[in-house]
Amino acid sequence: MKQPHLFDKIDLQLIRTLHTLLIERSVSKTAMRLGQQQPAVSVALKRLRELTGDPILVRSGTGMVPTDVGLRMLGPVTQILQSAENLFSPARAFDPAHAQETFRIAASDTLDPLFLPSVMARIKSLAPGCRVEVHALSAQAQYAHDLGQGLIDVVIGNWAQPSEELHRAQLFEDDIMCLVSSKHPAVRRGWTQEDWLACEHIAPMPAYPGWRGVIDEHLDRLNLSRHIAARCAHFGLMPRMVASSLLVLTTGRHYCQRFLEGDVPSGLALLPCPVPFPKMVYYQLWHERSHNAESARWLREQVKISALQLSLPASS
What we know:
Shape: elongated
Number of strands: 12
Helix content: 25-40%
CATH class of the largest domain: Alpha Beta
Number of domains: 3
CATH superfamily of the largest domain: Periplasmic binding protein-like II
Distance between the termini: 82 Å
Radius of gyration: 24 Å
CATH topology of the largest domain: D-Maltodextrin-Binding Protein, domain 2
Order of helices and strands: HHHEEHEHEHEEEHHEHEHEHEEH
Largest sheet: 5 strands, mixed
Number of helices: 12
Strand order of the largest sheet: 4-3-5-12-6
Structural class: alpha/beta
């Protein structure tokens, strides 16, 4: 009797499960990402172990890590999935009304608070069957890797010099302004560059060791240094922290303006920064792997349209 060929035991879904297991390093997270039940992923992992003769994932502390064999498989598995995508995507036009894609967006939380909700509403209106995941923007050392591995489809944020390895498109520009409490002394008497530098500033937590951010990178180029008295990992909480203190938040006008709108007094005021800054530029970035994929091109177009249509306050 003829023995079954190895290929008879492997299908693309099994390859996809292997790739996700190696990335997520968790059966439960893999099941969640693939939209499957956890027992089905466990069965797939058992099949993979039988086919390879290797555990692929092993326990380490409270989690799991790939074996040496598993790590060596990640590159070829990624190439197989990319090749399969390239093979079939040109023959199948993307129809948003009937699509079942999962779009993964990594974005900075310094964006206008209305921008990502606008992107989400547009995608769900035009492609109701598609899932959308909005991820926190990874450290600079990670987002290029995540785009290349297909873990995210597009990254949205602001960089003085975006990665040259990635495709990019400018979305909009923004002026640098300062958000302060309405009781801050500078609201009444103004401030000089020296006053501003000496104020107590609030800034994001470093995204990775040595990270400076566009504000402090520019100050470094001017041989200036501000007094950062507080840091917070949650950018959306900073305006409330500013309202109840003498802290100064220096960021884009569009972001600040949203906290001044409405009929209820916010306890905040917007002041020009006495240090000259270039405009803050927001981009969307993507990898060559998805440059020509119809679904990814459609996603980038929705991001672009949302940026153009969003009613942003005019610069003064």
